[in-house]
Amino acid sequence: MKNMYYSELGKAQVLIEALPYIQKFNNKTVVVKYGGSAMLDPELQMNVIKDVALLKLVGMKPIVVHGGGKEISKWVGLLGKQPQFVEGLRVTDAETMEVAEMVLNKVNKNLVQMMEKLGVRAAGICGKDGSTMHVTRKFVHGQDIGFVGDIDKVNTALIDTLLENDFVPVLAPVGMDDACQPYNVNADDAACAIATAVGAEKLAFLTDIEGVCLDPEDKTTLLSELSLSKAEELISDGFIGGGMLPKLKNCIDAVKNGVSRVHIMDGRVMHCLLLEFFTDRGIGTAIYKEN
Asked: What's the rounded Cα separation, in Å, for the pair 126 and 21?
């Protein structure tokens, strides 16, 4: 009986620890960029959606921006095409663009379905809906990589309407240009642009790494907090490379443009969002302005 008492007391202490964070972020908009391995493992996927549902049910306004790169590559391969990338961006011809839209729509509606099962109203959209993401063609060092979009304008009207009517917007990263031509958009870029446009309190990246480490091979060098100036210093000094480099640059831009904090965390950790949002210690790396 005593052990049961202490077990229940521990649960109560967890709730008390979460209370100031629930109060602080009540009615605040938070953006979750959902991607990586957490999208492929059914158990992890359900736990991420449960986390987002809880954020909503305790009074936050979550927006989910998701990727689907691994699934797109699988279907492109089934068509007999070899996926090609330039500096991490998918080379997207007309056929690949069709596949990307098909796959992202399927992923989008699956996430909506999972959220609705948990009693949270969700609406799946993409950047084409309501002209949410206007893009121009992206060139990499002058190289044309096809239908890959660079976001130059975000119209938040549809997202605002969904939030005001108690929906969780779930957004697939597809935008349109002036001619209404669809473009594939990097999901990290989309999440940063959306978070900036809505003035999000937090932007959380679910990735396949623990966070920003001084030495990528040594997890003990994880930086739990990182000021803007320190983040820029790490980049200029050459400590950051590979896939982390564009992600960290996106984080810096988001904070500079008004997002209070950006978090990079390991989406493979069960309930990583709850650990980051509601505990004193948190996980991953938080990027913030000095003031």
From this structure: 30
